[in-house]
Design brief:
With 109 residues, this protein is mostly helical. It is built from four helices and no strands.
Length: 109
């Protein structure tokens, strides 16, 4: 657990928090819209795990690697769901999910 608050950890925490924010924004726009896939429901799961992931890294949890692995899976799923929509908020969410998954990948290794 020697990673505590290195630049990589700060970057990953920022990516997780940004992803959660974009997911909540996407959800707020899509909540009343008809969707042919799991958007906006995926946004709630993704935002929740992203916040958990950021918190686990900030406190140097013994389980941060496992939480990062789960975050990668959920971010990839959410990115796929949101990218299927043309709306700007969905595209921004998908991009944030991809960035988060990428930074979590380095932390989960």
């Amino acid at each position: 657990m020697s990673h505590h608050l290195t630049q990589a950890v700060h970057d990953c925490i920022a990516a997780c928090n940004d992803c959660a924010t974009e997911c909540y924004n996407c959800f707020s726009h899509m909540a009343q819209e008809a969707s042919s896939n799991d958007c906006p429901a995926c946004c709630i799961d993704c935002a929740t795990v992203c916040r958990l992931c950021a918190d686990s890294m900030a406190r140097n949890s013994s389980f941060y690697k496992e939480i990062c692995q789960l975050c990668i899976r959920i971010c990839n799923w959410c990115a796929e769901q949101c990218a299927a929509h043309d709306m700007e908020h969905c595209q921004k969410c998908a991009d944030a999910c991809r960035r988060c998954a990428e930074t979590c990948h380095a932390m989960a290794a």
